[in-house]
From TrEMBL:
GO terms for biological process: monocarboxylic acid metabolic process. It comes from Brevibacterium aurantiacum. PANTHER family: 3-OXOACYL-(ACYL-CARRIER-PROTEIN) REDUCTASE (PTHR42879), 3-OXOACYL-[ACYL-CARRIER-PROTEIN] REDUCTASE FABG (PTHR42879:SF2). Pfam families: adh_short (PF00106). Gene3D superfamilies: NAD(P)-binding Rossmann-like Domain. Keywords: Oxidoreductase. InterPro entries: NAD(P)-bd_dom_sf (IPR036291), Sc_DH/Rdtase_CS (IPR020904), SDR (IPR050259), SDR_fam (IPR002347). The lineage of its organism: Bacteria, Bacillati, Actinomycetota, Actinomycetes, Micrococcales. This is SDR family oxidoreductase. The keyword Oxidoreductase applies.
Length: 248
């Protein structure tokens, strides 16, 4: 059993999907969880269910966050979105939004959280990357670039923070059935000219040796372990949860 009593955890994108599952798991282990999300109503609902607090914040507004001080023991950089276009048609604003939210915001929050972690000599930074932090897919240039960049930030944070008792690791899921993935089914069907059932079989499970999608709870269980004292020497690592996709 992981004991997170007296720990404060900040989970971005905590109002939905993987962030919600991780918020619930950390709270169940005793942590005080701050559910940070742009969706105020859902963040309040999750926070109220788990006895935590909501922080309504647009993490794409990174200038407003630079210079903030965060007093948390565990930081989970999880908020994310997806946009699918070929490079030749990718709107610059969408490309920038993805990279601001999914790479710049984790940098700014890590910068904000490390001083208090260093002062305590204990901390955990967990970055929700993706199989797309390790492999590319066509039509996802912004997402793949942001997730590969997040791997670089994870490794650099690990090297700087490790001597202070603070670890930083990445979780790299293949597909997990969350609202984000449900939203992609129709998009992928349109872009690839196939049916939604074919998207599930060919796109979402096409690379997985295990013929099932991961559940949000599978990711939360791994995040909980990475936050535990038992994971003190796991640092700068990528943790794939992809049914074998990255083994090929
Ligand atoms: N679901 C998957 O299959 C999968 C696979 C690999 C990686 N991931 C990664 O896991 C993370 C969570 O994905 P999910 O599937 O749970 O998504 P989700 O859509 O269910 O949840 C994402 C959350 O982020 C919040 N968010 C979006 N924009 C925001 C902003 N500007 N400021 C603050 N919050 C914002 C949303 O309101 C939402 O609550 C993402 O980083 C995603 O890239 C997901």
């Amino acid at each position: 059993m992981v004991d997170l009593n007296k720990k404060r955890a900040l989970v971005t994108g905590g109002a939905s999907g993987l962030g919600k599952a991780m918020s619930e798991a950390f709270a169940a282990a005793g942590a005080h969880v701050i559910v940070a999300d742009v969706n105020a109503e859902s963040a309040e609902a999750v926070a109220s269910d788990i006895g935590g607090e909501a922080w309504t914040v647009n993490l794409a507004d990174t200038s407003a966050l630079d210079g903030v001080d965060l007093d948390v023991d565990i930081l989970v950089n999880n908020a994310g979105i997806q946009r699918i276009h070929p490079i030749t048609e990718f709107p610059l604003e969408e490309w920038r939004l993805i990279n601001t939210l999914m790479l710049e915001a984790p940098f700014v929050l890590t910068k904000a959280a490390l001083p208090a972690m260093y002062a305590k000599g204990w901390g955990r930074v967990i970055n929700l990357s993706s199989i797309h932090g390790l492999r590319a897919s066509a039509n996802k240039s912004a997402y793949v670039a942001a997730k590969h960049g997040l791997m670089g930030l994870t490794k650099t944070t690990a090297l700087e923070a490790g001597p202070h008792g603070v670890t930083c690791n990445a979780i790299n899921p293949g597909y997990v059935m969350t609202p984000m993935v449900k939203g992609q089914i129709a998009d992928q069907a349109k872009t690839n000219g196939i049916t939604e059932d074919e998207v599930l079989e060919q796109v979402f499970l096409g690379h997985s040796a295990v013929p099932k999608l991961a559940e949000p709870g599978d990711i939360a269980a791994l995040a909980l372990f990475l936050a535990s004292d038992a994971a003190a020497v796991i640092n700068g690592s990528a943790h794939s949860v992809d049914g074998g996709w990255s083994a090929a």
